[in-house]
Amino acid sequence: MDMVINWPDIRKHFTKSFGSSLHCAIASIDKHNIPTVTPIGSLFLNKDQTGFYFEKFPKNLPKNIETNAQICVLGVNSSKWFWLRSLFKEKFQAYPALKLYGTVGNRRKANPTELRALKRRMKFTSSLKGHKYLWNDMEYVRELTFTRVEKINIGHMTADL
Q1: Could you tell me the end-to-end alpha-carbon distance of the chain, in angstroms, rounded to an integer?
Q2: Regarding the domain delimited by 7-152, which CATH topology (the fold level of the hierarchy) does it fall under?
Q3: 67-71 long-range CB contacts below 8 Å, 24 or more apart?
Q4: Sheet (strand 35-40) strand order
Q5: Which of 7, 34, 89, 111 has its CA 20 to 30 A from that of 128?
Q6: What is the pLDDT at residue 131?
Q7: Backbone dihedral angles phi then psi of residue 97, each to the nearest 5 degrees
Q8: Residue ranges of domains in the chain
Q9: Other residues' Cβ atoms within 10 Å of the Cβ of residue 150
Q10: Which helix (H) or strand (E) holds 13?
Q11: How far is Cα 94 from Cα 90, in angstroms, rounded to an integer?
C-alpha cells in the first residue's frame, strides 16, 4: 500500500476506527527497550502524511519519546456491523486494521485549527458530565510524521484488498 497515494483511504480508515472504538493505540519503546502501548482518543490525521494528538493524560509516552521518537499507531475498525457483514460474506470490504509508522515531534501549544478539530469531534459528548474532565484544558499537542503504512492481512478475508 502506497502511503501517499492511499492517504485519503488511510484517513477514512482511522476516522472509522476512532468512531468504533473511540481511540487508537500508539506503541513506543521505553528507555529499557521494552515496548508499551498507549491509548489515545485525540489523534487527528492531516492531509499530508502527518498528524497530531492532544497530550493531557499520557505519562509514559512523553518519557519514551525523549529517548526514542519512533512510534507505531494502530487503528482497528471495531464496528460490530463491519465485522458481522465481513464474517457473513467471508471477506472484508476494507482493511480491518492499519498500522502507521513514524516519529513524534516536540510538545507545543495547540493552534486554533487543532482546537476546533477537537471541539468538533467531541461535540457529541459536550453535554455529558465527564466531558469537561476529559476534554477541557486540552492545550498541548504533539505532531506526528508518518513514513510507512502496513495493512493487517487476515488470510482469505483480506485477499481481495
Answers
A1: 10
A2: Pnp Oxidase; Chain A (2.30.110)
A3: 67/29, 67/30, 67/31, 68/28, 68/29, 69/103, 69/104, 69/105, 70/28, 70/29, 70/101, 70/102, 70/103, 71/26, 71/27, 71/28, 71/101, 71/102, 71/103, 71/104, 71/144
A4: 35-40, 24-29, 70-76, 97-109, 140-151, 50-54, 43-45
A5: 111
A6: 72
A7: -155, 150
A8: 7-152
A9: 15
A10: helix 7-21
A11: 12
pLDDT < 50: residue spans in the chain:
none
CB 64 within 8 A of CB 130: no
- Spatial CB neighbours of 108, under 8 Å, sequence gap ≥ 6: 140, 141, 142, 143
Q: Which three cell numbers stand for residue 46?
A: 492531516
If one counts every other C-beta atom within 10 angstroms of the C-beta of residue 87, the result is 11
Instruction: Identify the pLDDT of residue 50.
Output: 97
